[in-house]
Design the sequence.
């Protein structure tokens, strides 16, 4: 567990937050005695994006689909990309 004095925690707050975002707890000390702990919050709903997608899905604004594998090649003719680029530039 990382430990910072109050002075260092204030001066390096971005570093403290980076450690917390990475899942570490950080102890803040005052005159060598621990006075506070900054730790990641429990996030049962996943990331903010996951929570937003769940909310949109619940309201029926989006429909989430499961991936069914990789997309195959769209054109089976060799050189299709080159022909497309040539036509586009003409």
Sequence:
């Amino acid at each position: 567990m990382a430990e910072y004095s109050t002075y260092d925690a204030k001066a390096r707050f971005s570093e403290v937050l980076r450690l917390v975002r990475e899942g570490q707890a950080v102890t803040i000390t005052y005159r060598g005695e621990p006075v506070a702990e900054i730790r990641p919050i429990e996030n049962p709903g996943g990331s903010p994006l996951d929570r937003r997608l769940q909310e949109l899905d619940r309201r029926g604004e989006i429909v989430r689909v499961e991936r069914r594998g990789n997309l195959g090649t769209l054109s089976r003719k060799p050189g299709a990309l080159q022909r497309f680029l040539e036509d586009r530039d003409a």
